[in-house]
Batch of 3 targets.
Target 1
Amino acid sequence: MAENRTATLTIDGKEYALPILSPTEGPDCIDIRKLYGQADVFTYDPGFTSTAACDSTITFIDGDKGILTHRGYPIEQLAERSHYLEVCYLLLYGELPSAAELEKFETTVTRHTMIHEQMHNFFRGFRRDAHPMATMVGVVGAMSAFYHDSLDINDPRQREIAAYRLIAKMPTIAAMAYKYSIGQPFVYPRNDLDYAANFLHMCFAVPAEPYDVNPVLARAMDRIFTLHADHEQNASTSTVRLASSSGANPFACIAAGIACLWGPAHGGANQATLEMLRQIGTPENIPDFIAKVKDKSSNVRLMGFGHRVYKNFDPRAKVMKQTADEVLELLGVHDNPLLQVAQELERIALQDDYFIQRKLYPNVDFYSGIILEAMGFPTAMFTPIFALARTVGWISQWKEQLADPQLKIGRPRQLYLGESLRDYIEIENR
Ligand code: ACO
């Protein structure tokens, strides 16, 4: 980050020189850290549309060109040639692992897949009809009550163990939340299966009969995990960073990230997209639906479309669409009505001026629900699957932030528009 250029800000005739920081990729950043002290002004940017809240070396997005890279590697190559646990290693440690490093990493993650047996009771405290995201927020937050030996964020070894625990146990927790919601017994993890296959097994096996994981579906599951692994400073990641900046323990921070991800404008969009496709029902109903989306008074949005950063195709959406085709082909589903509606909706939206002018394209969630539904997941499980996949991104960003010697508690300021100072009025005089 070279700091030899400056921007000049003039306020009431007085000039302030602000350093310009140059990234390796992406736009320059004007460093305003000293501005308040020097000029007694804040900057105003609700929604952080023009604000870099941290520096990071993990993920880069060029929203105009539709580029997403992790540690420099394009997401398309990682989705095609790598696999989820290798991408986890890359995100956590910055480089692709050697064969020996990968084996050690996979073995360590695999050995942490079981959860404390007493946590099973914790699940049983929830109503059966609880949304699995509600259960996950609670159970992941409760991990800090079970794993006292990985709570000290100042100890690098404990940070490492917390990272392994979260990545390893999240599939177990998500699968248990699902099993609990359908009244089936919990299925323990199987360490002879790979990460994605083990998750499918924990979700779909029952004690009464053997369940063989279909390797093509396991590969598709792994690819969905890979496509969701990290995405720069999105809302849930920023939530994790903000929670962590106060020194909160890792399990509390990740629970905060899960809570944020649940919203339909973020990770909840995959569930909302499938519900929307079902509601549209058949391609003939698309024009009416599009008209509603364009009518601002309706408050209806085309779910799975649009993105704060991508003003072009979300590169993950392209891989996701290809995966949807492969999975449906494998399952012998050639005329999935939801896929037909989705494809037609995409075709019509991409030709419509409303979407063209606003640069609205399909995002990662437009096709993921179709694949997950074809695999047998109910819609309520879509966002928990996103949460389990994103855990490594949250943890990598959390780890990066804690290693930063300049770490400060995140404490935004505000543009106060309330009442000015006034005197308290006794109740009988109001
Ligand atoms: N359908 C219809 N119109 C839309 C959509 C949409 N999906 N997304 C944005 N717009 C319109 C807005 O109405 C606004 O129009 P205007 O300029 O006439 O007022 C314009 O496009 C800009 O929209 P903003 O809401 O300002 O854009 P922002 O960057 O804040 O929102 C967001 C991004 C939240 C993702 C939005 O596009 C959206 O709600 N999409 C649908 C939900 C979704 O798919 N979320 C998943 C995001 S990816 C992820 O988290 C995994």
Target 2
Amino acid sequence: MTDNSSSAAGTLAGNNFLRDLIQKQIESGQHQGDVVTRFPPEPNGYLHIGHAKSICTNFGLARHFNGRCNLRFDDTNPEKESHEYIESIKSDVKWLGFEWDGDIHYASDYFETLYEYALHLIENGDAYVCDLSAEEAREYRGTLTEPGKNSPHRERSPEENLDLFRRMRAGEFEDGSRVLRAKIDMASPNMNLRDPIIYRIRRAHHHQTGDAWCIYPIYDFTHGQSDALEGITHSICTLEFEDHRPLYNWFLEHLPVPAKPVQYEFGRLNLNYTVTSKRKLKQLVDENKVDGWDDPRMPTISGIRRRGYTPASIRKFCEMVGVGRTDGIVDMGMLEAAIREDLEPNAARAMAVLDPIKLVITNYPEEQVEELSAPGHPEREDIPTRTLPFTREIYIERDDFRESANKKYKRLVIGKKVRLRNAYVVVAESCVKDDDDNITEVHVRYEPETLGADPADGVKPKGVIHWVSASHCKRATVRLYDRLFSVEAPGRGDGDFLENLNPESLTVLKNVPIEPSLAAASAEQSFQFERTGFFVADRYEHSDESPVFNRTVALRSSWNG
Ligand code: ATP
Ligand code: MG
């Protein structure tokens, strides 16, 4: 599934097989009552764009069918989890525009019930305490082509198992010395059914339950039962859990659960030129390859937020991608198309000169300052007009001037005219160079009668360029981003994904001349800087004394050539 139509962002909406399926269930009377879904992250990292798809799918289906969606933290690995991750996940979900039903849930809320469920399995001869070492257990497990062998402890009596399991809980045994396993089938072709571990001993402090437990349920024993306890009707997850479904169903059949949710799997979202694995993203952060989880180059929700993406653009992107039954790699160009589509009609226009060269208007009085007015947006009257100070010395982009050029070049050339955006027509006369032949100044004359109108002589200028007053500008730090990895599939095969990092993914420009009104931008406000892209005032670092802007996206796609 590669993006084949980023230009069709406005019309393209991917298929959503889950929405169709639930619709059919309702129509055929197979499903009565509420549609209840949940988004179940493990709080072991920040959420990324793939999670955004899961969030939009789960909350989106609940919204579509007037149902409910829970936010539940599947917190079964205390060592890897933290409050920081919990807070970031809550804030990302809210920012995306979704509201979870009622209070937040934690799988750890159910630890006592899960423990009771484990006792239930033991009493029925469906679980046993096993003392094999990890290495032995691996040998006994068999392979994809060979069946496993029964553990020597598999035939322990329910009484002995109950006693041992209670003592596991009471802290009588060393970490890792014993586990509780479901007694299913060591010869099953599905490895997940070969007497999977359901509890292990681990003396770890838990962010929710503190030191109350020294045994913790395995994710696979927790997830499905938590869904059942919450009355989830549609347990939606990604395809890699398809093979776990028989195990989840086995638990539901063998336990006194209040409901039997049905699991449906959909394809993961992957983006080219980046990674969507919490483990790899954490590695980028831990090894200081990026500036934290919310570095604007990161595919995390907090990173793309800081980059200037809007919640609407991400929801739009997820809608375009659709929900299908296969994993796919989506072109980054599609994400960019979604944000352009959102910002084009909404972002105020402004001017900034990223690579400045001085332009001297030789016939403009030295001390004169004119306050020109410019529309905030070409089509939106509700976006306020700005005031642009116009002075004898201004800045233009270095590549908007050439001493000579052919007709295709629509910018400033000696002897030719160009319009300064929202201001006058100027005609270039000469330029000044330093000893190394670099142009340092361009000298022009302006045509006073051309403000906001065609030139009196009827000769239309070929092009329009942007500019900022040299004496009345403010200065900003502007950050430009390129793809974080220089190859489409970082670390493909056995490669180390870190070796594919693009060393030029960040360019920081200092003292960039910006029109004065921009300094007053509020944090996270988006703009189109004329001709150079969409930019956002940095969420944390921007202030009117020291403005900081991040480029969200260029005006045109750079992904597909
Ligand atoms: P891990 O379990 O390896 O830490 P994870 O990315 O699966 O990583 P979870 O916190 O378990 O993280 O994910 C929460 C939910 O988001 C799960 O239901 C998962 O299936 C879904 N999800 C995770 N990554 C993607 C993705 N790339 N595309 C779509 N859904 C995803
Ligand atoms: Mg997971």
Target 3
Amino acid sequence: MHKQLIETAVKARQMAYAPYSHYLVGAALLTKDGNVYTGCNVENASYSPTNCAERTAFFKAVSEGERHFSAIAIVGGKEGEELSKHCTPCGVCRQVMTEFCDNDFEVILGTPEEYKVYKLPEVMPLSFSNTEL
Ligand code: THU
């Protein structure tokens, strides 16, 4: 399941629109019902409207009525280079994961050949969530 999700993220990465950073990211988000939503980063000449691959996947899924997620695979690297280093999610994407996911949510980082699986609290310790409100 993890490897397959990474492979789906690799395909999603092909759609990345990153003419400014030339750093291409793909994500594949698995719902608890077994549906998969993909995302890529979408950059902008004004820079700040840029959306990360992870948030693209989450917002596609949530806007289709999904609310329960079990894992996300993330792959990223420089345009024209082999995928090697792990692409770790930015703070804003970790906060979005915190909004919709529980402590069992898995964050899968790496490549189809080599990846590591983290639980959400490992990548987002001491998080602020809706349980505080
Ligand atoms: N980016 C993502 O899409 N996800 C990450 O986890 C890290 C960064 C994107 C944002 C921007 O388009 C490019 O990578 C360089 O920061």
